[in-house]
Amino acid sequence: MNLPKVCIIGAGCSGFTTAKRLKDHGIPFDIFEASDDIGGTWYYNNPNGMSACYQSLHIDTSKWRLAFEDYPVPANWPDYPHHSQLLQYFHDYVDHFGLRPHIRFNTRVEKAKRRDSGGWDVTLSTGETKHYDALAVANGHHWAARIPEYPGHFDGAQIHSHQYRTPFEPVDCIGKRVLVVGMGNSAMDIASELSQRPMAEKLFVSTRRGVWIFPKYYRGQPLDKNPAPAWLPKGIKQWLGARMVKGLVGKMSDYGLPEPEIGPFESHGTVSGEFLVRAGSGDINMKPAVERLDGDGVVFTDGSREKVDIIVWATGYDINFPFFDDPAFTADSDNRPPPLFKRIMKPGVPDLFYMGLAQPLPTLVNFAEQQSKLVATYLAGKYAPPSEDEMRRIITADEDYYTGQYYAARRHTIQLDFDHYVRALNKELEKGAKRAAAKGNALPVPSRQMEEA
Ligand SMILES: NC(=O)C1=CN([C@@H]2O[C@H](COP(=O)(O)OP(=O)(O)OC[C@H]3O[C@@H](n4cnc5c(N)ncnc54)[C@H](OP(=O)(O)O)[C@@H]3O)[C@@H](O)[C@H]2O)C=CC1
């Protein structure tokens, strides 16, 4: 059968696992990667400017949960591998499955435009425009730094956590008074590192709300290693999890942190084995939200003022698809992507797939590997989605399930429970296989001879 040809944007873990699955099904594809190598955000000092890695970064998901299902992680890995180990694992995967020859490096997708009749014209940084039958978007969502604006001016240095590499780069923090803004996982790691006595002279962390900080271990085992069964009702799962977390860490105010007004599962999980100890040891000084910048200092909402030399904005990322002009395909002003069936397909657009566009707990690393099952079987005519109306109904129900419990924030628009998602996806794949068989396994996306536009 002449299967449709796919353009994959990005050779990070979402892009290359999608490629592997397409290859398994004999679906032709090209991957375009702006950088000189694979890995995306996990490629430290990635010359494409899109890596959020700092030198000391260890992933906060354990090796037990991030492994690709068809390629085991090295047996000698620690529970929480370093970013360099993860990147090596990615290289090994790509080479093992023979994906590298399909990747065009140093080639950025500048524009992706859908034709009225379907199919995509993809314009590359080389100036070429190529036509593809389908488009898989895997450009990541941890690279467009979000920096809030506050009144006043600041005379010191300001960086976003995305730029942070070491205590010395890109700004020398040694002996300085440093303010880290935010309480996500970037803030946890960077504040814990800089608060060590030989590093910053004084380390402040500003947060506009209290959050729960999960430990990394429970009785000597990674906390995420033995999750509750995926079939357990959400309310019970969260009640049990909240009890365990509270039992393990106690009250946040015991460490000098603001007491959360929310439960542990009402914000994206903040995980750290170090932060609470550093705060409890007096090396991290908590401050409320920033009110204004004030020359050589910062004024906070409780009226206090601190002299500050460096601000690290660990304030997260925006979802960004710079190659789409059509707002129907991009995130809105609240950082919400278009409503997507299984977070992959936009109803009514049969030849576009968003890969890894989620904040799955516990991890994003092996998430697109699961999603690619739907994409590959769909393009091969072995899976058929439900009607557009049914897709929309499922999208609404899924979004309520996955994001309903979180407080409204730009960082919470694509939250997702990995285990629940995979269970539901597998059921959907079974149903879709029956629908496809009833339609005679017709190809939903026509394959045209690939042509230069
Ligand atoms: N070791 C690891 O594996 C690491 C993983 N990560 C992952 O990378 C992703 C991004 O994490 P991260 O970079 O921490 O970003 P997040 O979006 O998770 O956190 C951003 C933080 O900044 C705060 N914030 C946002 N806007 C403002 C504002 N205008 N004023 C004050 N505070 C603000 C948020 O507070 P609010 O909730 O109030 O909006 C939140 O506390 C996550 O998925 C995270 O888990 C990150 C670092 C390390």
TrEMBL record:
Annotated SUPFAM superfamilies: FAD/NAD(P)-binding domain (SSF51905), NAD(P)-binding Rossmann-fold domains (SSF51735)
Q: Which UniProt keywords apply?
A: Endoplasmic reticulum, FAD, Flavoprotein, Lipid metabolism, Membrane, Methylation, Microsome, NADP, Oxidoreductase, Phosphoprotein, Transmembrane, Transmembrane helix
The top EC class is oxidoreductase
Q: Where are the transmembrane segments?
A: none
Required cofactor names:
FAD
- Any one Gene Ontology BP term: lipid metabolic process
Short name of any one Pfam family annotated for the protein: FMO-like
Entry's EC annotation:
1.14.13.148, 1.14.19.55, 1.6.3.1
Reaction(s) catalysed by this chain's protein: 3-bromo-4-hydroxybenzoate + bromide + NADPH + O2 + 3 H(+) = 2,4-dibromophenol + CO2 + NADP(+) + 2 H2O; NADPH + O2 + H(+) = H2O2 + NADP(+); 2 bromide + 4-hydroxybenzoate + 2 NADPH + 2 O2 + 5 H(+) = 2,4-dibromophenol + CO2 + 2 NADP(+) + 4 H2O; hexan-3-one + NADPH + O2 + H(+) = ethyl butanoate + NADP(+) + H2O
Against InterPro entries, the record matches this protein to: FAD/NAD-bd_sf (IPR036188), Flavin_mOase (IPR000960), Flavin_mOase-like (IPR020946), Flavin_mOase_5 (IPR002257), FMO-like (IPR050346), NAD(P)-bd_dom_sf (IPR036291)
- What Gene3D superfamilies does the annotation carry? FAD/NAD(P)-binding domain (3.50.50.60)
PANTHER family for this protein: DIMETHYLANILINE MONOOXYGENASE
Record function comment: Acts as a Baeyer-Villiger monooxygenase on a broad range of substrates. Catalyzes the insertion of an oxygen atom into a carbon-carbon bond adjacent to a carbonyl, which converts ketones to esters. Active on diverse carbonyl compounds, whereas soft nucleophiles are mostly non- or poorly reactive. In contrast with other forms of FMO it is non- or poorly active on 'classical' substrates such as drugs, pesticides, and dietary components containing soft nucleophilic heteroatoms. Able to oxidize drug molecules bearing a carbonyl group on an aliphatic chain, such as nabumetone and pentoxifylline.
Give the family from UniProt. Belongs to the FMO family.
State the name under which the record lists this protein: 4-hydroxybenzoate brominase (decarboxylating)
| Annotated source species | Sphingorhabdus pulchriflava
Q: What is the lineage of its organism?
A: Bacteria, Pseudomonadati, Pseudomonadota, Alphaproteobacteria, Sphingomonadales
